[in-house]
UniProtKB/TrEMBL annotation:
Residues 24-245 form the ABC transporter domain. The keyword Flavoprotein does not apply. It comes from Thiothrix unzii. Belongs to the ABC transporter superfamily. One of its GO terms (molecular function) is ABC-type transporter activity. SMART domains: AAA. Keywords: ATP-binding, Nucleotide-binding, Transport. GO terms for cellular component: membrane. This is ABC transporter ATP-binding protein.
Amino acid sequence: MSAAVIHLQHVGVAYPRYTHPRDALLEWVLRRPRHTLFHALRDVSLSLDAGDSLGIIGDNGAGKSTLLKLLAGNLAPTAGTCVVQGRRSALLELGTGMQPEFSGVENARMGLALRGLTHAEITAKLPEVLAFAELGEFAQQPVKTYSSGMVVRLVFAIAAVIEPDVLIVDEALAVGDQYFQKKSLDRMREILRNGTTLVFCSHNLYQVREMCRKAVWLERGTVRLLGDAQTVVDAYQDAVRKRTPVGADLRVCPDRCELEGAHVGAPLLGNVTLNRPHFQTHDRFAVTVQAIRGNRPLSDVHIGIVIRRNDDIQCFGISTLHDGVQMQDHGNGVVSTRFVIERLPLLSGEYCLEVWLIDASGVHVYDSRERCCHFRVQQASQQQGVGMAWLPHRWEVVVESPEVATDAVAA
Ligand SMILES: Nc1ncnc2c1ncn2[C@@H]1O[C@H](COP(=O)(O)OP(=O)(O)OP(=O)(O)O)[C@@H](O)[C@H]1O
C-alpha cells in the first residue's frame, strides 16, 4: 500500500449515456445494452501526501466534479484504482445531503454523524460548527428557509470544523459572501497547516494558486498537466488566451463615437489603448486615453484609471485630478493623455482597466468604460514571490539578540 493519503492509478470513470430516457428502462426490461459509454475521466494518475494541497482546474465539462466525487467516495472508478486514506469530508454541490425540513442544528448533527463522529464528538463539535456558520437564530429554523449563502455557511462549517484527513471543496464556496469566503479560505489554510490534505476545485484561478501547492489541469477527462500550482495555472491561462478569438482581444477599446468634429455636448471617452497585450512583471506599461472635451473647459476634464484583477480586486486607481495633471487639447476638441508605469509591479494574473472621465470635483462622471483593455501579466519565475504585486523590499540580517530586538519594538 502506498504511503500517500490519496493515490489514483490509471483511474477512469465512464457514464452510460442513453439516446432517449426510455432506453434505460428498455435496457433493464430487455436485458440488452441500449447505451453508449461516455468517458468523463480517462487514465488519471496522481498522489498526494498528508498536508498536500491540489487545485483542480479546467473548462466546463472537463471532469472536475467527477474527480471530486470520486475522491469523496460518492462515485466508484470504472477503471484503475482510487485509494483515499483517513477521514474525508467533502463540500460538493450546494446543500447535498441537507434535509430541507430539518433545522440547521439537526442538519449539523446529521452531517457530523455522516462523517463518522460519535455521539460524544458531535456534542463537543456542534457549538463550534454553529459558531463558525454564524447563522444566529436561523440555526433553529428549517434549512428550506435559508438563502444559498446560509446553506453554504452551514455545509462548510460541518465539513471543515472536524479537521478531516482529506478535505474536498468544490466551487460551492463562491456562493458565500466575501466575508464568509475569506473566513472559509482562512479556515482551509489553518487545517492545511495542521496536516489535512486539501483538494480544491475552483474557476477562481487566484484562489487555486493561493490555496494550493499543486494543481491538475483536466481537459476532456484526461490530465493535460499536473505540477506546481503556479505553472499549471499559467499554462491553463495561456491556453485560454490562445483560443480567444483575435476580435476579442480588447487591448484597444474602440471608440464609442466619432472623435473628429465632436466639439459640443458632454465630454466622452474615445480610444483607450495599451502598449501591449501581455506583460512581464517590471515591463513598461502604458495606456493612452483619448477623450472629447465637449463643451467643458480643459480644467474640468480629468481621466481616472483603475487596474482591476479579474477576480474584481482593485489593484490601483489614480486620476489626473489626484496627480494635478492638466490635459492638453490637440486643437480639435480631442484631448489625450498617457498613463505610464515604468516598471509594472503586478505579478502573474489577468487584469483589465476601468477608465473614467470625470470633472474637476471628482464627483461627476461624464463617461466611463469598465472592464476594458484586458491584459495579462506573467512573472519571470516563482522567485519573484506570490500575491498580486511585487513590493520593493530587502532582507536585513539581524545581529542583536531577540531580547534586544523585542525591546527595540517595544520602545
Ligand atoms: N451522470 C452523468 N451521466 C452522463 N454524463 C455525465 C454525468 N455526469 C457528468 N457527465 C458528463 O461528464 C463530463 C464531465 O462532467 P463534470 O461535471 O465532471 O465536468 P466539470 O469539469 O465539473 O464541469 P463544470 O466546470 O461545468 O462543473 C461532462 O461532459 C458531463 O456531461
